[in-house]
Description:
By secondary structure, the chain is an alpha+beta fold.
Amino acid sequence: MIDMISTVKKITVFVYDSFVKYTLRKKARKIISTLKKEGTAKNPPERTLQAYREFWKPVLRGIDVKWLKIYGSVSGLWDRRYVSERIYYSIIEPCLNNKAFAKAYNDKNFYWKTIDSALLPETFVKNINGVFYNSKNAAIDLNEACRTVEQAESFIIKPSVDSGGGKAVRLYRRVGDVFSDKEGCAVKTEELFRNYRKNFTVQKVIKQHEFYACFNATSLNTVRIFTYRSVADEQVHVLHSVLRAGRAGSVTDNQASGGFACGVTDDGCLTGKAVNKAGSSFREVNGVKLEEDLRLPGFESMKKTAKRIAKEFAYSRLLGFDMCVDAEGEVKLIEVNNVNNEINFYQMLNGPLFGEFTKEVLEWVSMKDKSFMIDFDI
């Protein structure tokens, strides 16, 4: 029986990894196609190409060099330490983050247990496994949940888990006795709750700082901070930061929704460059010029907050924090990403994902087992 279970596990992982490999190759070809059309695609120097293959051989033979070509072409920097999406999603993240605990720690409805509530958006109502709770985490019925939300003039509703890429994140504003989204689709609160079914949160709309609003007023523009808790000394390091701005008219700032990632230096200044999901580069976003050395308000506070919270995530060494600054200048935490972290915009804008820590990460994952999880509702 044990041997049979082990065989089934190996087959499952093989099938899943094959699907990931196919999907990511298709994605890489699409990005390169865009770069070629724009005339920005370049071939890696032969020395870097050979060094890249040799460097990553301990964890993956026959490495796909398309990602090296993408990152080098967009960033202008050639380096053997670039991490391909396949290596990251199939090997590194599953080794450094325990996927079996991912959803529990990623659930926005439970952030208050480990994160200071002053950092979190104000919550009107939350739904956990089909049960409604108020802002004080007391169970309530559907009618009270509806009445609570209906007292607001506007609200944000989103899944408490699996909301990556802005999936199912909606902004509603009151129009008479109903609420309407940006497309003008009206819905009653009870109907909306039934559409979301379970595991979602309803929050107060954050009025963002004027600096961030200038890049796109319709989306809450956040700073994504990527942290790594070192396997060598357990210290948390901020590896990369980007300012994310939504496309004009969008409610979310995600690249998947047509948004932009703008380069940010270690001390919180814009680099003057942005990229989109396709790898296209920009010097302005929604008509706003990205001025080099323009400092982001609240950046140091965001970095300190991310490093402090990262220590609480014992099962995840890699975390992506989405933070914003409100109109009063207070930092708010929107989301902590502990699985399937987007890595392309970091490397397109700033260079290799792990920088000086690449060798210790490579040595660690080449010796450790990786976690694996398949999760879906039927």
